[in-house]
Automatic annotation (TrEMBL):
Pfam families: SMI1_KNR4 (PF09346)
Protein name stated in the entry: SMI1/KNR4 family protein
UniProt domain Knr4/Smi1-like: residue ranges: 47-191
């Protein structure tokens, strides 16, 4: 999985997959598609301007990781992404998890005080060797929520763990013991497409 992505190509591929999926066209997920999506054959929005990106970084008091910033430049909001995440938020709605879902943060912080933290050896396992429960509750306060809740879960970026300048990316859901974690936002998006294609083919 690459830390960089050709965002126009990747997002067009996701759009094509979703817009040929009966579950989204006429099934129980049809309401996640807008008439504009169907007409354009594209699930994205116009890219964020430098003014919008600078305003977001000023509001968050941080510099966005490269792959996520480039994604926003390509499409300022996108979705549905798969059966579980329906909207990646535009700049104007992106915010720290502690501001949007403080109860989730406090719940995991409380749990982290009662159990020992995951060791580095366990934590820095990615891909198929990773166990979903291997998250650190102390990181929740630092998470940047970048999607809606979708199917009882959301996507977030974790600046507390970085790989070559990229922030760790999380798919958190109530039906995952903790979270599925990736080394970058690009890696998360690539893996999400592969996982979605596998489920779609079943």
């Amino acid at each position: 999985m690459s830390a960089q992505a050709n965002w126009p190509d990747l997002l067009r591929q996701i759009s094509k997959e979703i817009l040929t999926d009966a579950d989204f066209l006429e099934g129980n997920l049809a309401e996640t598609l807008t008439p504009a999506h169907r007409q354009a054959g594209w699930l994205g929005e116009p890219g964020a301007t430098e003014v919008e990106l600078a305003a977001l970084e000023q509001r968050l008091a941080t510099q966005l990781p490269p792959s996520y910033r480039t994604f926003l430049q390509t499409s300022n909001g996108f979705g549905p992404l798969d059966y579980f995440i329906w909207d990646l938020q535009p700049c104007q709605k992106v915010d720290w998890l502690v501001n949007t879902n403080r109860d989730v943060v406090e719940l995991w912080e409380k749990g982290s005080k009662q159990t020992p933290s995951v060791s580095d050896e366990e934590y820095f396992q990615y891909g198929e060797e990773q166990a979903g429960e291997q998250v650190r509750g102390e990181y929740f306060r630092e998470l940047l929520m970048i999607s809606d809740w979708g199917d009882a879960g959301f996507l977030a970026l974790n600046p507390a763990v970085q790989h070559e300048g990229e922030w760790e990316a999380w798919h958190f859901a109530s039906w995952i013991p903790g979270a599925n974690r990736y080394r970058s936002f690009t890696e998360l998006m690539q893996a999400t497409l592969v996982g979605y294609q596998a489920l779609k083919a079943e």
